[in-house]
């Protein structure tokens, strides 16, 4: 793969670049596949890990190795197996398909969105040997007419048509009620099928030390702590969005892959004109619908846009400038970060459900999850601007 592509994505690394924990995971995973591929019950292998812990990197490395064995002319126990990697995320799917062109053992057809694969396997009444699911927390947990999914849970349907299912799962990256997962929601699946779990907890994306990662973790639980200092990670809070954007442009000129991103707090209607994010004196367009095969972060013109959780989730940037919109506020009485779901503009994320009980805490969690996704994009730096004046002043005071 090109150095640009490697730098721009979720660091799909070769075997030598995998950490000891990642290499152990890859070996454990392939051993599990060999053990369960010919068993009567579907085997489930669950990989847990926070944003930036290298889940997609090791998943892609293991899938490439599996396909090399499947397509090898030398007889082996995984030769001629039928395997897929699915992800319910358009921008990540583009990266996987591009990587297929750089790997002789991969084909673009190996990578699918879940609904088309489910529908095809159902129609032909066939079984896949192994299905890898990246970002499994984005799988639908209810029917969705827009996405042509008529079942009730995409994981259930994929298990029906697979001998082994490998899924990457992080409940802190759930971004919509229609794909709402809690860790406990996996329990019924694990109770029914033979399974193993593996936890990745080492931060690979962010060069920041443990204090930086902990600060973000605390923030996304509503807690504020002193701003960490780390010579290897540039962490700045801004009183206005324009100088933050100017610095992002400078960083992009210096090292590339530096972008503005924002919480979904600014109006946007697909294919209806240009919509803007406002951050103090800065007014800049939201990202446009991307009809190209190039992921948003790889296109040079997107330096003049603001990315969303849907264009940046799962990707690496070198520097990320994050605009915290009107839904993210501050409670001086408790000195905590608070969120206001009624100000969140992504109404598709809050599409009502009558099977989840009280939706208020779930909506708040989705907003905090989106902040976690955005704040953990940058390898070398995080820049923040808060639209809410009280939160902005409190952040500057830190």
List the helices and strands and how they pair.
Layout: H1 3-8, H2 20-36, E1 43-49, H3 55-70, E2 83-87, H4 90-100, E3 111-112, H5 114-124, E4 128-134, H6 154-160, E5 162-169, H7 187-192, E6 195-200, H8 210-219, E7 234-237, H9 241-255, E8 258-262, E9 276-279, E10 282-285, E11 306-307, H10 309-312, E12 317-324, E13 328-331, E14 336-339, H11 360-375, E15 378-386, H12 389-397
Parallel strand pairs: 1-5, 1-6, 2-3, 2-4, 4-5, 7-15, 8-11, 8-12, 12-15
Antiparallel strand pairs: 9-10, 13-14
Helix pairs in contact: 2-3
Please give the alpha-carbon distance between the first and last residues.
Answer: 42 Å
Tally of individual domains: 2
Please give the radius of gyration in angstroms. 21 Å
Helix content: 25-40%
Placed side by side, the strands forming the largest sheet appear as 3-2-4-5-1-6
**CATH level 1 name of the largest domain:** Alpha Beta
Based on the structure given, which CATH architecture of the largest domain is correct?
3-Layer(aba) Sandwich
Helix-strand category: alpha/beta
Order of helices and strands: HHEHEHEHEHEHEHEHEEEEHEEEHEH
CATH superfamily of the largest domain: P-loop containing nucleotide triphosphate hydrolases
Number of helices: 12
Pfam family, one: SLFN-g3_helicase
Protein name: DUF2075 domain-containing protein
Organism: Lactiplantibacillus daoliensis
Short description, anyone?
By secondary structure, this protein is an alpha/beta fold.
Explain the overall architecture.
By secondary structure, the protein is α/β, with parallel strands linked by helices. The chain folds into two domains: 3-200, P-loop containing nucleotide triphosphate hydrolases (Rossmann fold), CATH 3.40.50.300; 210-397, no CATH class. Helices cover 32% and strands 20% of the residues. It is built from twelve helices and 15 strands. The protein has helices at residues 3-8, 20-36, 55-70, 90-100, 114-124, 154-160, 187-192, 210-219, 241-255, 309-312, 360-375, 389-397; strands at residues 43-49, 83-87, 111-112, 128-134, 162-169, 195-200, 234-237, 258-262, 276-279, 282-285, 306-307, 317-324, 328-331, 336-339, 378-386. Strands 3-2-4-5-1-6 form a six-stranded parallel beta sheet. A five-stranded parallel beta sheet has the order 7-15-12-8-11, sandwiched between helices. α2 packs across α3 (55-70). It is globular, with a radius of gyration of 21 Å. Mean pLDDT is 89; it is low at 1-8 and 11-16.
């Amino acid at each position: 793969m090109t150095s640009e592509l490697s730098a721009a994505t979720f660091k799909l690394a070769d075997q030598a670049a995998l950490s000891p924990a990642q290499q152990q995971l890859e070996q454990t995973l392939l051993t599990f596949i060999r053990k369960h591929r010919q068993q009567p019950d579907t085997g489930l292998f669950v990989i847990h890990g926070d944003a930036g812990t290298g889940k997609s990197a090791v998943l892609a490395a293991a899938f490439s190795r599996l396909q090399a064995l499947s397509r090898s002319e030398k007889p082996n126990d995984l030769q001629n197996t039928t395997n897929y990697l699915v992800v319910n995320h358009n921008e990540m799917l583009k990266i996987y398909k591009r990587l297929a062109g750089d790997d002789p053992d991969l084909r673009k057809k190996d990578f699918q969105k879940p609904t088309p694969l489910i529908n095809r396997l159902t129609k032909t009444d066939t079984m896949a040997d192994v299905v890898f699911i990246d970002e499994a927390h984005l799988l639908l947990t209810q029917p969705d007419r827009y996405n042509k999914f008529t079942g009730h849970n995409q994981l259930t349907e994929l298990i029906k048509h697979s001998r082994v299912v490998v899924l990457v799962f992080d409940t802190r990256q759930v971004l919509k009620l229609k794909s709402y997962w809690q860790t406990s929601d996996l329990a019924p699946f694990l109770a029914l099928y033979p399974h193993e779990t593996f936890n990745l907890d080492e931060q690979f994306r962010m060069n920041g030390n443990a204090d930086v990662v902990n600060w973000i973790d605390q923030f996304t639980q509503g807690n504020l702590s002193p701003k960490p200092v780390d010579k290897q990670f540039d962490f700045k809070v801004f009183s206005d969005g324009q100088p933050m954007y100017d610095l992002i442009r400078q960083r992009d000129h210096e090292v590339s892959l530096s972008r503005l991103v924002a919480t979904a707090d600014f109006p946007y209607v697909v294919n209806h004109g240009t919509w803007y994010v406002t951050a103090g004196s800065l007014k800049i367009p939201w990202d446009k619908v991307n009809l190209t095969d190039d992921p948003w972060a790889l296109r040079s013109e997107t330096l003049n846009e603001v990315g969303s959780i849907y264009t940046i989730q799962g990707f690496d940037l070198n520097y990320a400038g994050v605009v915290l919109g009107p839904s993210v506020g501050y409670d001086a009485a408790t000195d905590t970060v608070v969120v206001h779901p009624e100000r969140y503009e992504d109404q598709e994320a809050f599409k009502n459900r009558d099977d989840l009980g009280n939706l208020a805490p779930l909506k708040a969690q989705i907003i905090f999850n989106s902040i976690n996704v955005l704040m953990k994009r940058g390898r070398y730096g995080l820049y923040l601007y808060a639209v809410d004046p009280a939160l902005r002043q409190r952040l500057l005071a830190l």
